[in-house]
Amino acid sequence: MKVLLNYSLLLTILFLSGCSTLKPGGMFAHEEVKPWHKAMLAEERMQLNAYSLENSADQKMFYSRESANGGQGVGGGGCGCN
What we know:
- By secondary structure, this protein is mainly alpha-helical.
- Helices cover 48% and strands 0% of the residues.
- The protein has a domain of 38 residues.
- The longest helix has 17 residues.
- Pfam families: DUF4266.
- It comes from hydrothermal vent metagenome.
- This is DUF4266 domain-containing protein.
């Protein structure tokens, strides 16, 4: 029984050490983004937008009401009449 406990403890320690990182700053050390990764992170599909379909529907309604394409958050818009 004691041998089984020692093996399970050893396996647990090995498993948990495999999940950790050995960086000088610890587990939460800052890692710089490489220049060749920045282009991939800047793509539209990598943005944090959980409601893309809802946002596009809102923009369509705003465009229909205000007649201003892409005029979210700015003054003006409309038909252009004075």
